[in-house]
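Researcher: Here's the sequence for the chain we discussed earlier.
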Amino acid sequence: MKAAPAGYGGRVACPATKTIPICATLKMQPAPVQNRKGMVFQMQTITADVFQNLKKFIAENLIQPSSRQERQDGRYSQFQERENSRKGQFQNRQENRQTGSDVRADTAPRQEIQDSQQNSSEGLQYKGDGKEQPDHTGGRSMDSLIGEVGASFREVLFDHIKASGMTNTEVYKRANIDRKLFSKIRTNPAYHPGKSTVLALAVALKLDLTDTADLLARAEYALSPGSVGDLIVRYFIEHGIYDLQVINTALNEYDQPILG
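Model: Thanks. This is the structure I predict for it:
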């Protein structure tokens, strides 16, 4: 095996194949890896048991593209059925107008509009299929709903930092993000951080899955069951493993963007 470059304390770098269980078995020190922003993290060894459990977790929870495609096809089929039904109704009305056999066919669309307006005023939403659905707005105006927007990502983040008892410096170092980026988040309410940054901060703060999902939602993100990277992060959070270097090592092993 080739010796590591100077600066690694004479330790041997992990083979280019990134076989983490082998690295753990041979007790080799994995080589540092850079993220997209140039930040360097030291890859960590992951035991074979954790790696196999992670692999099983991904296999059980990952929604494959084919499954999403099937759902899309199903929605498209339902859309086609509704369109065909509407076309049939339209053709029937046209025929009724031409023959003059049914005067109500001409007034039906206007009656539907009136019924829809009446249902809306009564706190109900009218759908084209004739079914009445509850209006979850409670009849409130859009302005009143907008006025109830919750705390921003920045506000929730710094509430978590305060509750953790850590300093800002400790948090951004644990999250493997630089001081300038953290300063943007702290001072600019309009700044929108990337998803990897939000997840890194959640890991640094040791948030559980519920609080992590909430913090992501404040930044308009979500953990997706169709993303291998998201499932990896979810696995470690669910198992209480908040070592960002370990999580990034697993992400790197699966060719996913690392956090930070």
